[in-house]
Amino acid sequence: MNGRSPEPLVRNTGRRNEATILNAALQAFGTSGFNGASMRDVAKGAGTSLSNLYNYFPSKSKLLAAVLRHANGELQRRVAHAVDDAGNDAPSRLREAVRAHVGFVVDHQVATLVATNEVRYLDPADRTELVSHRDATQATFEHIVDQGAADGVFCTPYPGDAARAILGAVAAIASWYRQDGPLSRGQLAEQYARYALALLEGPLPR
Amino acid sequence: MNGRSPEPLVRNTGRRNEATILNAALQAFGTSGFNGASMRDVAKGAGTSLSNLYNYFPSKSKLLAAVLRHANGELQRRVAHAVDDAGNDAPSRLREAVRAHVGFVVDHQVATLVATNEVRYLDPADRTELVSHRDATQATFEHIVDQGAADGVFCTPYPGDAARAILGAVAAIASWYRQDGPLSRGQLAEQYARYALALLEGPLPR
DNA sequence: TGTGTACATGAATGGCCGTTCTCCTGAGCC
DNA sequence: GGCTCAGGAGAACGGCCATTCATGTACACA
């Protein structure tokens, strides 16, 4: 049951070909990097003409910004829902947040890689906006860590950087995970949830 | 005592300007990415002429390969020495390995970023070589984890991916650490060594 | 003194890139 | 029918890029 067809990141936007173009751009930027991929590549991938791209996005850089906004939004949505559905104690909340994050990384490996590697190519204004959105997601994790530290369930002497460490490990999954490898999506999420709790010196199941 | 002048990654190679060129290339690739940086940028950074670069390296791609070989070599050397100088038990060995790795990331942030983000732009042969070198460094960590698991000191039920998780967290430091921030190099290394031991569910000091 | 070799340079060359321009089509609406 | 407007296409333009070429200097060494 491992062979899910790779769900596109962007589904529907109201404009006829926008989603197709965004997904093609994601693929192109993921394969060759922002500077390595040309607008011609994106057009080819989207099955449209080079000039038509400019009917949707005013520049290559704004196209990247749009792709990253969709990726970030989807991640933020998944993590937020997971935390909302979890219990009130920090360990369960952290567990569900990590599981959701790992799920996103596995479902959208390319988007994760592009989001971490290509942000720097945005113009300053877009970069600032995107970084602040990313920081908001990170803050979700930091608040949970703070809560657990305050409650005394996370005993690490270094709670300040723990969220960053956890998120770094999770994001790195995107650079080695293979869908046809030995680990299922669920097993991987389970493992990393435990890694996170252990790193925080929190309560471990079993 | 935090303001160390950034030691260049490459020090001396026997050819007159090779080190200068390699360090300039590292800087250029780090700032703009492999495809975003031009050979003209590298030449300017090295204070030499565009065409002279080709007296040292046959192509831009081989130049990147040389940069990455130096970065990887330095990391591997530091980790190997640290492990050699450590005790024989897995926890001390892991602790020293992590401390050395964090030290490298802090001392050579740009090299770490380039090494993780730009490997994919090498031609296949160089990429294969570089990846196998990187895997060798990773294997050092994996062996320590295996040793600790066999000895019963690392109790994590998932020792198989733990090294990857730790290395992912450590590499991510390069994308947020600031020399003038609140954490010294040594404190950071200490923190991450503890994170690593905790993640493995190993013995914790104090 | 002559010869090879390492290092260095400025000027091409051919190609691709982002972007723009001009034009075309078809659907919705008066 | 006539108008608008979103969506679409091909051809061009100016610019930058990796690489090569022709040429020059200076030093080692026979």
From TrEMBL, chains A, B:
Keywords: DNA-binding
PROSITE patterns (UniProt xref): HTH_TETR_2
DNA-binding region: 38-57
InterPro entries: Homeodomain-like_sf, HTH-type_TetR-like_transc_reg, HTH_TetR, KstR2_TetR_C, Tet_transcr_reg_TetR-rel_C_sf
Keyword rRNA-binding appears in the UniProt entry: no
Keyword presence, DNA-binding: yes
Domain HTH tetR-type residues, every copy: 15-75
Protein name, UniProt field: HTH tetR-type domain-containing protein
Annotated organism of origin: Prauserella alba
